Amino acid sequence: MTRVKRGTISNKRRRNVLAKVKGYRFGRSTKEREAKVAIVKAGVHAFVARRDKKADFRGLWQTRISASSTANGISYSKLMGALKKKNNLINRKMLAEIAQSAPDTFARIITSTQG
């Protein structure tokens, strides 16, 4: 029988694992076992960060709305309360965009809630 050399699949697997951790420091970039742990941890952090990103953006929108509403003479909480009373369905993302790109339109929204 002819000789069969083994290890091509395991070498391919090892190459793929190490390719995912390219740029990591120390043993995490060179040792397969440490690299696998690093990949799992990176996935966990990515999962958590995707959820945190939503909260971060909501905070950014609140800050932008607050800054613009304070410049127009009303606090953020009073503005949001007035919008809710008027049953205005503009969300915070859109309000922040309007406040940043079209301040005159934002001022009209504020006057419509107060009137």
Automatic annotation (TrEMBL):
Name a biological process GO annotation.
Answer: ribosomal large subunit assembly
PANTHER family tied to this protein? 39S RIBOSOMAL PROTEIN L20 (PTHR10986)
Q: Which GO terms describe its molecular function?
A: rRNA binding; structural constituent of ribosome
Similarity field: Belongs to the bacterial ribosomal protein bL20 family.
Q: What is this protein called?
A: Large ribosomal subunit protein bL20
Q: Which InterPro entries match?
A: Ribosomal_bL20 (IPR005813), Ribosomal_protein_bL20_C (IPR035566)
| UniProt gene name | rplT
Record GO cellular component, one term: ribonucleoprotein complex
